[in-house]
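Hi Q.,

Before the meeting this afternoon, I wanted you to have the nicotinamide-adenine-dinucleotide prediction in hand. No need to reply - just skim if you have a minute. The sequence and ligand are here:
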Amino acid sequence: MSDPLFDLAGRTAVVTGGLGQLGSELARSLVAREMRVALLDIDERPNDDSGIPENMIRTIGCDVTDRAAVVKALERIEADWGTPHLLVNAAGIDAPPDAPASEVGPFEEVPLEALERVLDVNVLGVVVPCQVIGGAMARAGRGSIVNVGSIYGILSPDQSLYDFRRLAGEEFFKPVAYSVSKSALVNLTRYLATYWGRSGVRVNTLTPHGIENGQPSPFVEAFAARSPLGRLMDVSEAVGAVIFLASDASSYVTGANLVVDGGWSAW
Ligand SMILES: NC(=O)c1ccc[n+]([C@@H]2O[C@H](COP(=O)([O-])OP(=O)(O)OC[C@H]3O[C@@H](n4cnc5c(N)ncnc54)[C@H](O)[C@@H]3O)[C@@H](O)[C@H]2O)c1
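Predicted structure with the ligand bound:
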């Protein structure tokens, strides 16, 4: 028997970055709860949700920083499925593993263009879907928005996690751009929670940390040593928080930051 508190059946969700590791896991979980899910992603690769019918999940190629593209995506979604009930902003970028040395070097030398690139996707790429899709939700008088932040948006990176790269002779610092961008989301969330408070749209941040994804073993070991739960997170462990924030179980929760970090921020 489904629990009405957590019942999402028949509602529509938009997941940005829906082809990524977290976005695709969330999409599958929402479809399993009978939501119709539109994945917005800049990537053109087909999603691997073979077996899920087209009337339950669809991918729309879209750069979330491009307002006209997001407007067009929303028009397609609304035409078929109506105004979305849930928007999960999971599109995001970080410095890639092969980032040039200047981008992962000392703070004093980080090129501003590298900062701008990350801020563009991680901040404007959340603002724009909130404007367009959140605006439609507000006109419909209901909705839930989940902005995916990061522990690095509320705490500074522990640079010792990356000692293994320095020991290998590299000059490496987890760059500041990601932290700055993710901390902006915490207050964008609060701003919108109050702005739309009486329009029936709730807005919350989800703050995950350390999703297991085949990272090098020295990183995994350093992470585990620092983590109260002693391990990285399995991507499936982010799902419950999103179901909670999406559903009526969280009807009085807005402007909050739900931290799913295995206790990282507890000490
Ligand atoms: N993986 C982690 O450990 C971790 C921890 C904390 C927070 N997060 C956050 O969770 C979110 C998802 O991360 P992930 O690990 O699934 O990353 P991922 O790289 O697997 O997925 C991100 C997706 O966003 C898409 N994307 C990038 N730029 C875009 C744009 N301009 N328009 C549309 N789509 C775009 C990418 O194509 C990709 O499919 C990100 O916001 C990330 O910062 C991840």
